[in-house]
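Incident log, structure service

09:12 report received: a user says their structure output differs between two submissions of the same chain.
09:20 pulled the input from the user's history:
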Amino acid sequence: MKRYFLPRAMCALALLLAPRIGAQTSSSVAGEVRAVYPRSEALYLDLHQHPELSKHEVETAAKLANEIRQLGYEVTTGVGGTGVVGILKNGTGPTVMLRTELDALPVTENTGLAFASTVRTKDDSGMEVGVAHACGHDIHMAAWMGTARIMAGDRTKMARHAGTHWPASRRTGVGRQGDDSRWIAHAFPRPDFALAVHDDARLPAGIVGYHAGPILTNADALTITIFGRVGTARVLKRRWIRSSSPHGQ
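09:34 re-ran on a clean worker, output below:
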């Protein structure tokens, strides 16, 4: 079976979560990744074949919650809808949050792979759609789980992981109406570091890219309604468009 981006994503997370990587050889990191890889690959294939749309990731969330619960994490489900949070304490130290997405896209998979998604469902508008992990969130979840497994493996050898770990499994769009992000911020330890990865088709297999600050970001649409006389509304609209243009036009 061909293994595409899953190995590099897992290596990226393992490396990012080792603050004292200088004291650890690359071979030991690779050994940890190899040890958890089979179970992460099995999870990846399962998630790929059983995708769920945003706000409907009930089975996906249950799978992740069950896995980290068995690893000894304190698990909270139903966070912001379908979110899952796991807490692993390992003495004093910084709190690290590791985040992944849950949701798949409303597209039909035509890859021809043996493990391709054949799921069809109705979206929130009632339209029948195919569902597939075309954005790679199945890879993210498998890497997230592999890293959580490494971190919970042997705490006596985990000085580099000392502290509290918060694997947060959320659907895309944290902060949407109904998520109640303020409650989330107060219900769990405040992270000192927040980490995440995303697969990127622009990079060849085996390459890990990183960037300081926002990257590959997106935002919801913004609608502005102006009330007033027709002439006044037109003037205000022109001013807003002009001020938002990078060229001042």
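09:41 both user submissions now match this output. Likely a transient worker issue. Closing.
09:42 reviewer note: DSSP finds six helices and seven strands in the chain. The chain has one domain: 6-218.
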